Amino acid sequence: MSEGDSVGDSVHGKPSVVYRFFTRLGQIYQSWLDKSTPYTAVRWVVTLGLSFVYMIRVYLLQGWYIVTYALGIYHLNLFIAFLSPKVDPSLMEDSDDGPSLPTKQNEEFRPFIRRLPEFKFWHAATKGILVAMVCTFFEAFNVPVFWPILVMYFIMLFCITMKRQIKHMIKYRYLPFTHGKRRYKGKEDAGKAFAS
């Protein structure tokens, strides 16, 4: 391989200006993502605000219903992955390998590990809204369709999918929301409780 054949290299072996620009842009983007990680409520409020702006845009333009339908299905798939355990208990029934969900009250506490973590769920959902917003600027994505049928299909799909997910949760006895290990009052905590 000769000099300058690798991706992003210029003739003199140094990274090209375009490559450096996009690398720097990626670093800035990742830095902002890292800074936003602890602000869960703020992130979701911004995402809900973006979805509200998107819905208003679609309503005012009276079009792009296929894009909205695709966005809804994408968000539904993300939500199902968010509610699902990382290791499917139905696959773990036969084998005793790896971690499993607790099935009895007195079993050791094991936190619920999601297939799609909250941060990745938020990031993918926000990117989906932004991509859908960009699509509304191109007439090619404005496919004429009778939108009430899409709404009916989406409601049916949502109900069927959630029913299946809830049955799965009931069958394998797990809740997708864990607030931490149960705390028991010790001697120090009991003294504080009686003092107040």
From TrEMBL:
It is found in: Membrane. It is a multi-pass membrane protein. InterPro entries: Rer1. The chain crosses the membrane at residues 41-60, 66-83, 145-162. The keyword Transmembrane applies. It comes from the Eukaryota. One of its GO terms (cellular component) is Golgi membrane. Keywords: Membrane, Transmembrane, Transmembrane helix. The keyword Transmembrane applies. GO terms for biological process: protein retention in ER lumen; retrograde vesicle-mediated transport, Golgi to endoplasmic reticulum. Involved in the retrieval of endoplasmic reticulum membrane proteins from the early Golgi compartment. Belongs to the RER1 family. This is Protein RER1. The lineage of its organism: Eukaryota, Metazoa, Chordata, Craniata, Vertebrata.
